[in-house]
Amino acid sequence: MRPDPIQRLDTMFFWDACERGEFVAQKCEPCNKLWHPPRPMCPTCHSLEKSTQTLSGKATVLSWVRQVRPASYGFKESPIVILVELEEGLRMVSNLVGDQPPTIGDAVEVDFEKTVGGKAVPVFKKVGA
Amino acid sequence: MVAASQKACIVGIGQTEFSKASGRSEQQLAMEAILAACQDAGINPADIDGMTSFDLDNTDEVDVMRSLGVKEIKYTTRLPQGGAASVATIVHAKNAVESGLCDVFVIWRAMNERSQYRFGQPHHSMSPDAHSSTFMEWCFPFGAQTPAAWEALSCGPYLHKYGITSEDLGRISVTFRKAAATNPAAWFYEKPITLEDHQNSRWIVEPTLRLLDCCQESDGGVALIITRADRAKDLKQIPVRILAAEYSMLFNHEIISDFYAGDLIRTENSEIVADRLEATAGIAPKDTDVAMIYDNFTPQILRQLEGFKYCGIGEAKDYVADGHLELDGKTPLSPNGGLMGEGYIHGMNNITEGVRQVRGTAANQIEDARTAMLASGVAGAIIGR
Question: A47, A67, B63, B249: which has the fewest C-beta neighbours closer than 10 Å?
Answer without folding.
Answer: A47
